[in-house]
Amino acid sequence: MIDWLLLFSNAAQEIISPTTAAYALAALGLAIHFGFTGLLNFGQAGFMALGAYGYAIATLTFGFPVWGAILFGIAASIVFALILGVPTLRLRADYLAIVTIAAAEILRLLFTTNTFEPVTGSANGLQGYKGGFEDLNPIPDGVYGFGPWVYNEYDWWVRIFGWGLVALAALITWRLMKSPWGRVIKGIREDEDAVRALGKNVYFYKMQSLIIGGVFGSLAGMIFILPRAVVPSNYQTSLTFFIYAILLLGGAATVLGPILGSVIFWVLLSFFSGFIARAVEAGWLPFMSSVQAGQLRFILVGVAIMVIVIYRPQGILGNKKELAFVK
Question: Is the pTM of this model over 0.90?
Fold first, then answer.
C-alpha cells in the first residue's frame, strides 16, 4: 500500500527547501534576462556553477571568510557575463543563445578535467567549505519545526539564508522594473530599434541586464551547495532547461512568477517521484523497472507543465500583454 501521508509530507518539504530557493533565485535571474530584456541566455547553469565553485574555492584554497567567498563568486559571474556579452550583445539574440549554452558546457568540462583537480576536485567535486557559514548560524542547537517541516539548526539556517536572498532579489527586481532603467529594458524586449532611436545605448543596457541576472544565478549556485557538495555533474545543460520550465510556469515577465514556479515544480517532482517509486514497489506498474520509474517522474511533471502552458501560455502570474512572443 502507498503511504499517501508520507508522499504529501515529502512533497510539502520542498516548499521551503534550499533547492527550491536556489532554483527560484536562478529563475529570477532568467526573468531579468529573458522575461524583461528578451535575452536568450541558455547558460544559467554556468553562472550557478561559477557561484558554487567560486564560493568553495575561495573558502578552501584562499581561506576567504564567508562574505569574501560570496564576493569572489559574484566577481567571477560578472567576468563571465562580460566575456559572453562583449562579442555577442551587438548581434542578434540567437548568437547569445549559442554562446551561452556552449560556454556553460565549457565551464563544466573545465571543472571536471583532471588538470585542475587540486583546485576543483575534478569529477569528485568539493566539500568541507561550510564551516564559516555554520559559524554564522544564530540559531541554538536543537530540532525545531512542526508538521513535515522539522529540521535541525543548520538546516533552518540554510533555509532562512536562502529564502532571505530570494526575497531580497525579488525586491531588487521589483524596484528595478518600476524604475526608468526597467522601462528601458522592457522597451528593448519589445523593439530595440525604437529604444535606440530614442538615444539609449541598447548595448550597455543589455550588458547590465546580463550581469544582474548572472549575479542572481551565481548566488543561486551558492545556496544550492550549502546542503550538499559541489559536483560538476549538477551543472549540465538540463539544469538551465529546468530553470526555463520554472520561469515559463510561473510567468516570464513577473517578479513572483519564478518563485511560485519553483515551488510548484519541486513539489510536483517530489510527489511524482515518491508516488512512482512506491507504485513500482506495490506492483501497480509491473511493466516498469525502478530505473524507468525514475525517468517517468520527469515525463509526468513535463505533461503537467505543458497543460498549464497550453491553457495559460503567459504563466500562472503572467500577463499576455507583457510578452511579445505570445502576442
Answer: yes
